[in-house]
User: Fold this.
Amino acid sequence: MNIHEYQAKQLLKKFGVRVPEGRLVEEGPQVGERAEKAAQDLAKAQGNSVWVVKAQIHAGGRGKAGGVRVCKDISSLKAAATEIMAKTLVTPQTGAGGKKVHKIWIEEGSEIARELYFGIVIDRAISSVVMMASTEGGMEIEEVAAKNPEKIIKVSVDPTLGYQPFHGRKLAQGLALTAEQMKEAVGFFGNLYKAFMQSDCSQVEINPLIVTKKGNLVCLDAKINFDDNGLFRHPDIFEMRDLQEESAADIEASKYDLAYIPLDGNIGCLVNGAGLAMSTMDIIKLHGGEPANFLDVGGSASKEKVSHAFKIILSDPHVKAILVNIFGGIMKCDVIAEGVIAAAKELSLKVPLVVRLEGTNVERGKEILATSGLKIIPADGLTDAAKKVVAATK
Ligand code: GDP
Ligand code: MN
Assistant:
């Protein structure tokens, strides 16, 4: 799960991490007036005379796309708020269609001396938390990683041992902080680590982490992703979910507990088990096709779940053919067959459908498909299935 920058900042603040103060303004009538009121309220509390208007969307790269504006007086703030709220931002992370702005965050302006980068992720290969920092903040960190990987300092933290001051010192040294700032940084990074661990995050990214002209560290931006499997432990975090930021297909998929990831190709895949789903995508590619999605209905899907999975696949207009690839273990092939038929009939399926079934009750499943009256292309084995579905798109 993803949250907005303003929510991430509020979460970090609870863990003692310094963030700028701000006020949220939602879309609706009189955005300018409400923004003005929020800015004045903020100035009263913080004593600031500069504000930053920031579009709140679930994507980075807002600055370059015109979604972040520094304002030195109230009239330009009103104009900026109105303009940004009306925007649909197209950034490298939104896709070509862009993302409509529904919320803006008005923040006290910060005086920036240095823009740094800080991030925390999990490295599954070494079963550790990896903390990263770089002097090259504010820029696209992917580019730094590709061109100047030596400019990213990494420390891996064994979760059993936890964060230790030496981890923080190593990061701080790489950032060329002063002795005074280094002391602050050790605690600051420790608080970020605590926020990451205690909230079951999968990623925390602060870009930029700034050093202010007064010499303090502040998170000027904050992106947080959570491990969905840990969300049941955090109802307060789950409440921050913003459905407006998610696609209809994502919402449907999460409602029925389906692992769905849209891709660029034209072959819709309905598979049970993540491993089988990945090998299905591989074999489609091997035979010259491109999968339109990754979709794992799980090991014990019901007829209803299969039917909803089908609807999600068909909601993608790029899908030219569908491959159902099921290994019935816990899940029975006849149940799958019924789900497929129910969905195909209900949606009056118009694209070719290739089905490969194997495992428990496979004979019964094949019989159900064969006598359904639907034009289903049966396949034996993975290779046969991939060849048939690729041919069907041609
Ligand atoms: P992103 O483009 O979506 O990553 O949005 P950011 O929150 O990182 O903001 C983009 C850029 O706007 C930052 O790198 C800063 O250079 C600038 N910026 C953001 N807030 C402030 C501020 O308070 N003062 C100043 N001077 N610049 C800011
Ligand atoms: Mn940023």
The chain has three domains: 21-108, 112-238, 247-393. The chain has a mean pLDDT of 93. The CA atoms of residues 332 and 360 lie 5 Å apart.
